[in-house]
């Protein structure tokens, strides 16, 4: 039955003949380790294609979903980290093998007749594979991918004449977004693979046409040596090497626990320390030597001249002495490899000795860790607006940023600020510790020491007769104000159990109520002072941010001494909410590590 | 075993190992949806839909179920997840309210109330049920799926329903994860 089927198949396709001739290709000089490189490259490319196909079943290409789907692959799906890790490290293995393969062919002078066309096809494959590398690692649309896209497309845009048009077509407009991701995805999983299949098909067909280039010592093989064929003698060596490479890849995946995923793309993060993959580092470093308008020399002219030179090798071979050309080409290859190594090391060393890079990297790592934590948290998750909103909806990240940008020019948080302090420290604002500190020493820098116009508390402190225990009670009482719900009136609050009979209540009414007017509760009037009802609660803080000139707040101060109001145009409600929640510590916190 | 046989065997074994190293994780990757996500806790949540006094005895009324939904990696807050039919029973009957999933046990279309308000029909393949959820033709494989109902302790109790999905086409009611 099996024979019947095999015969039928052979009759209809005639495939077994060519296949058998490939298997039984004679190896006159026997199997060689130096023949494994191309096969290993092919094997890893197949693994790339396969793991890539797997991820296509889970990846979602758009600027709002890409990061989330990669997060899902990496952190939630069964073996997702393994599949993605293999693809990630496989890509790097391809780069290494490609480089070795190229050098090997160059050293063996296999660009010479009759293999010229195959040499050219190989160079095309080199460009295609570099294209795979570039289009692939931005697909997660994380910080790394986003900034890499910008840099690469701007390099395209810097090319003379056609550059800007090419860039617009590739990016899908002038803005980086959904269409950018879909276009790079289309390139990575559609256009480039088709081109690769065609060119690689040609490359392999020609390799079988010309056979493997026999080594120089092939003639020395004794005529009575055992006859070797491609299968199994060479395939065994190939399998051993591929097994070793796959073993290393698996080791790297296990060691790293998958592939890296940076925080979601954030166009508004000027301090993100963007760096390319290690195998592009020398190009990255080289570009630093070509300032401004000369950038295209480094990014286009030099690589272009290099590729042209390599492409011309078979033709130069006809007009120059072969040996001299080969010597020059190999010397050039060594010089370039040395140069690339030098630039790569220089780039890493520069970063290692650059404190501001380290600081930016630390910050980026913290943002990354936070994004992954929030995405995985059942109470948070990735919002429908997209992963870019993950950190924008997080009071710790967004509130902290806004506070730093909008408030810390005057205020401080735990002594840290960006300008000259002229307002209190906001650390624990509204808490018992804050109010107790104020009652102890109102003219401390953390309170009103830097705001001389708010000297009412300082004067009160000189005249008050409250002792330490009574101050504790008042502070405890005032600290409860922060918990007053947003919709509660003064009357409702006073009727809440625990308010009227609080030990600090009477003290507050008598000692603080002389200045601080709370409608229906304290009289005020001795001096101007803010209304303290719901002080330290989100509603009070929001009023303070929106309209500090209200009569119940600091309206009594001269305009130039008041805190500037934040109008809704400048700061939407959601931003105010983020700042308040940041100050109140109202955000998800990872469980303390023991 | 001679050298060539060793090479032959080695090629096959190593090649097989390499293929397994990617095929096994790939199989797990593709089969990921079979792994039940942690919705078991969610399934135990009763959702308040309407005050009992708002329901008329014997008149079916439909209510949407709105809940936080996690669709693979995206968390959608308060999204419509499905619908239920509530039928209030006469005074003194136990339970006071019957809740049916509006998902047809045949192929999952939304069951609607017929124009005469005396029976349910499914607009897709004409499944028909009476107000007790019993099939009135041979299209549906089983009666309409009843859902757990409880009444809150308020003076005018809230009707609370535990929304669940069940396998379609099965003759038994088999909850989905």
Automatic annotation (TrEMBL), chain A:
Limits of the Cytochrome b/b6 N-terminal region profile domain: 5-216
Superkingdom of the source species: Bacteria
InterPro entries: Cyt_b/b6_C, Cyt_b/b6_C_sf, Cyt_b/b6_N, Cyt_c-like_dom, Cyt_c-like_dom_sf, Cytb/b6-like_sf, Di-haem_cyt_TM
Ranges of residues in domain Cytochrome c: 394-482, 499-587
One Pfam family recorded for the sequence: Cytochrome_CBB3
Keywords recorded for this protein, A-Z: Electron transport, Heme, Iron, Membrane, Metal-binding, Transmembrane, Transmembrane helix, Transport
Membrane spanning stretches: 33-50, 93-111, 117-135, 185-206, 236-255, 296-315, 327-348
Major subcellular location class: membrane
Subcellular location(s) of the protein: Membrane
Topology class, membrane: Multi-pass membrane protein
Protein name per its UniProtKB record: Cytochrome b N-terminal domain-containing protein
Source organism (scientific name): Paludisphaera mucosa
UniProtKB/TrEMBL annotation, chain B:
Ribonucleoprotein among keywords: no
Chain ranges passing through the membrane: 12-31
Coiled-coil boundaries: none
PROSITE patterns (UniProt xref): RIESKE
The Rieske domain, residue ranges: 86-158
Domain of life: Bacteria
Assigned keywords, A-Z: 2Fe-2S, Iron, Iron-sulfur, Membrane, Metal-binding, Transmembrane, Transmembrane helix
Pfam family, one: Rieske
InterPro entries found in the cross-reference section: Rieske_2Fe-2S (IPR017941), Rieske_2Fe-2S_sf (IPR036922)
CDD domains from the UniProt entry: Rieske
Protein's recorded name: Rieske 2Fe-2S domain-containing protein
Species whose genome carries this gene: Paludisphaera mucosa
